[in-house]
Amino acid sequence: MREGTEVLDLASFLEEERGRMDRALSRAVAQAAPALPHGLLSPIERGVLAGGKRLRPILCVSAYRASAGARGGGGAKAPEAMYDLAVALELIHAYSLMHDDLPCMDDAELRRGEPTVHVLCGERETMVAGAALIPVAALQAWRAAGDLGLDRKASEEAVRVLTRAAGGAGMVGGQALDLLGEGARLSRTELDELHRRKTGALLEGSLVLGAVAARADESIRKGLSTFGREIGLAFQITDDLLDATGDAATLGKNPSDELMRKSTYVSLLGVEGARDEAHARSRAATEALRVAGIRAPALEALAGFVVSRDR
Ligand code: GRG
Q1: pTM for this structure?
Q2: Is 281's pLDDT higher than 90?
């Protein structure tokens, strides 16, 4: 894929980028492995290396390229260290799915068309392996930022962006709101706030991390941040739609929102209303790029992918 060309072949772009992310994730796991007690390697390999769309690191590298392009470096290939930095996001994402699937959480037995990690490796092992991935991700980001040539201040900023997105004000905080709201009927404002944290924070952080890595100026960083916030919501609304209308064979997991009586965008807006809202958020994301003067065919295509995906 050449970012400078007008038409982007999304399918081959995604395939190429996923391959690079998978290789970077294998390097990250191999780097972490010597320090880990032997029993943790299996659940970590299973949780990290067995598939997934790799959306967050792909967004991160795309934001890096778009930022470099805005500074006059358009079309440049991202260095390998950028992929190493981006997959720190995927390590956090992987742990969150491992924990989210546990019997004490969503109690899911199927993910990505395969038995979940705890089904294969045991509950306690999965819990500990998931926790081990959090510092592994922070160290991965720190090391990769150095390899990328970022100075100390920018490297610290990269780790801060990652850990804030993953923490109490972000993903874990959103998960806590989700648990506290169980059984309640949430308002639109409450649902937005829950998902802005639980799903949106890591997606928005992916864009901001790419901007930090490219040393983007404030206006580019803000534009990418707004893009990330909008696609975060579009992604979650689509997730709710897929859960309500998809089947396990396509989704690779069992629909569960209705079973768990969750407040969702579908329960709040209906299928058509939720679909309209997802597309509106996707358009708002693209508009944020235009307003900030960011030319990024890959990000525009990814904004479309987020709402057109079938899993
Ligand atoms: C500390 C108990 C404890 C929990 C950690 C579990 C947790 C925090 C947070 C949950 C975050 C979570 C699972 C959010 C859902 C996000 C979501 C819609 C994930 C699906 O993402 P995709 O579609 O997955 O990108 P793939 O399979 O493509 O990687």
Answers
A1: 0.95
A2: yes
